[in-house]
Amino acid sequence: MSAFSQLRLDGVSRRFGGQAALTELDLTIEAGEFIALLGPSGCGKSTALNCLAGLLPLTAGSIWQDERRIDTLPPERRGFGMVFQSYALFPHLTVRANIAFGLRMRRLPKEETRRRTEEAVRLVRLEDHVDKLPGQLSGGQQQRVAIARAVVFEPSLVLMDEPLSNLDAKLRLEMRTEIRRLHQSLGLTTVYVTHDQEEALSLADRLVVLREGRVQQIGSPRELHTRPANWHVADFMGYRNLWRGQVEQVDGARATVESSGHRLLGEVVGSLQTRADAVVAVRPEDIRVDGPGETRNAMSATVEVVEYQGRELAAEARTDTGLVLHLRTEQRIAAGDQVKLAVDPQRLLVYPADASAATDRQPDASGAAR
Amino acid sequence: MSGAGPGRPLAHWRHRLAERGVDRQLWLLVPALVFVIALFLYPFFYGLTLSFQPTRGGPFSDYARFFSDSYERGTIWITLRIALPAALLNVLAAVPIAYRMRGRFRGKRLVTTLLVVPITLGTVLTAQGLLNFLGPTGWFNRILLASNLVDEPVRLTHNYWGVFFSLVITGFPFAFLLVLSYLSGIDPTLERAAATLGADWRRRFTRITLPLLMPGLATTFCLTFVLAFSVFPSAVLVGNPAGETRVISLAAYQAAYEQYDYPYASAIAMIMGFVELVIIAVVLAARSRFYTGSTGGKG
Ligand SMILES: Nc1ncnc2c1ncn2[C@@H]1O[C@H](COP(=O)(O)OP(=O)(O)OP(=O)(O)O)[C@@H](O)[C@H]1O
Ligand SMILES: [Mg+2]
Questions:
Q1: How many domains is chain A partitioned into structurally?
Q2: Considering the domain boundaries, does residue B159 fall inside one?
Q3: How far is the C-alpha of B108 from the C-alpha of B102, rounded, in Å?
Q4: I want to staple A7 with a disulfide (CB 3.0 to 4.6 A). Which of A29, A175, A204, B67 is the partner?
Q5: Does residue A252 share a domain with residue A218?
Q6: What are A's interface residues with B at a Cβ cutoff of 8 A?
Q7: Residue A170 is part of which domain span?
Q8: Judging by DSSP bridges, how do beta strands A190-194 and A34-38 pair with one another?
């Protein structure tokens, strides 16, 4: 299967019965890119990936590989490699035969099949295990077989469905580096599904955030990290503090919001009018404890819960007016302490609260969103 | 067992035994054991002893008698000639149908029920139906005659074919249900993975599904073969019990209830069991060459 220079998803939609699992996904993937599909459980990530792989027919839309329409092709004729969440290794074949499967299906000459299989084995460092059956491997080794099997025939696109979710924390970090290394050395175009924002940020060139089957934002890790497009994305990207409030004043890119009796100054994302309902989003690590001389967005609060997390502490504090703050700090604080907290206005994002939010999870006035 | 004294070696042994699967849960096997001894082992050894005590001659004379008489000896071949192809056909026919039906689709329950109904009919009713349908004046022949495809009725009952059809009709549902459950024990993601690796449906079947299914097929074959090998009612009802379909169970029956020669009947039963064991041993030996571990499905 020849490589492409561009893969275009055009209004790709999928319904199950009456329920929409994926709605109008538009996305252009450039050759060599590493794209992460990110979103909470059930948002349609696997659906999108299976539609791309050809394992699930679309209910609307089309997929184009350069000028060729491919959404009507069966999976075996798309030539995309896929890593399944459950690995899906063939239990009756050895590691070597598993990895060679894609090459065999392409009827390559024996010698080339052997050579490329050995190469892939070396790439994922499984030289000592080639004659074992998958059932005799550890989870991480199985994962590596699955990856080797999906990349050995140099597919024009590699799809990975939460490939690390079954591994323990340490192995997950190792494999993450390994996947990144593989991507860099082979230059394979990759679409990677995950619900772990940290994983997505560290791996991808570009992130696609989905929610309830709809794209919320497409952007670089930096864009998503610093400027989520709406408060749902912010929520997902680690802005644990989501406070409801009302806009008091808009001044260009800045707005002042009243929330639980606090007047907060922050950056406006989207369009806001005075008096409109707003949601304020702040990352725990952007709340400073006893910031020297910081007067804007200052609040005094009582520390309620402290969790030890290595160098940092994660804490929950409550202001006199009942606003709950999640924060991370390297300072030694303890439950019951009175602290002065402050947020840099550049790090405080103000979003319009969406009107159609009757069924959504709402950040409540006290900020105890979780 | 606290620390010192004689308690320690005892606990040690208990641990060692438990590692080998010997622990109190073994008591759960008692009912099954009683059942096996009372209903299988006892009659088996009773028959075995009896077969060595013929009414005339030395301990092996009944066996010699069976094998020296070509009419008797031939029953083994006759039975194998019916049972092996019938069992094979049952398994082979069950595979594509079960393969097609392994997913979920509308009306699956109805189709499954229809395929399984023959189990509930029993051999006699099946034989009756066969006679009505395939007999010389049955619908099948009447249709053939009316459409001028044949000049005289095709004989499909009271011969080899009658018994064969009856075995297929009664044996197929078993084979089908077994194969279906073996198939649904194979993780469907494996085939999807094979598809993304470039395998079309034919190669997905031959490279992935079939090898994983083979052990199940071998077991299914053994079970349907055993069912077919002890064929008795249909051999009489839709077969030709004096000639072509004089199966081995019929020979045993005649020895026991027409000649009242129980030792000889026991000897025939022993031979019958031995032939079955040989076939099963061959099939299971072939089975062990395939991968027999977990196939990742829902079992
Ligand atoms: N075969 C199916 N039949 C009916 N509904 C389905 C089917 N597969 C998925 N869905 C629905 O489609 C929606 C999206 O499912 P999908 O598997 O794409 O989620 P996901 O984002 O991959 O979630 P997760 O992170 O939990 O894997 C879900 O609401 C799910 O219930
Ligand atoms: Mg999923």
A1: 2
A2: no
A3: 9
A4: A29
A5: no
A6: 53-55, 74-76, 78-82, 84, 86, 88-92, 101-102, 105-106, 133, 135, 149-150, 153, 159
A7: 6-226
A8: parallel
CB atoms under 10 Å from CB of A86, counted, come to 16
Looking from the CA of A191 toward its CB, the CA atoms found within 13 Å total: 27
Chain B hits for A79, CB-CB cut-off 8 Å, are 198
Q: Is A46 in the pocket of ligand 1 (CB under 6 A)?
A: yes
Same domain, residue pair A114 and A31: yes
The label of the residue with tokens 């955030």 reads: A209
Sheet holding A60-65, edge to edge: A19-30, A6-16, A60-65, A68-69
Closest chain A C-alpha to B176 CA, distance in angstroms: 24
Is residue B142 in some structural domain?
Answer: no
Tens of pLDDT, residues A17-32:
889 999 999 999 999 9
pLDDT in tens, B49-59: 999 998 888 88
Q: What is the pLDDT of residues A92-109, one digit of tens each?
A: 999 999 999 999 999 999
CATH number (domain holding residue A145): 3.40.50.300
* Res. B17 pLDDT band, cuts 50 70 90: confident
Within-domain flag for A50: yes
Same domain for A166 and A245, yes or no, is no
ipTM metric: 0.81
More confident position, A319 or B295: A319
Q: Which residue has the tokens 């979003």?
A: A351
- Tens of pLDDT along B28-47? 889 899 998 888 899 899 99
A90 close to ligand 1 (CB < 6 Angstrom): no
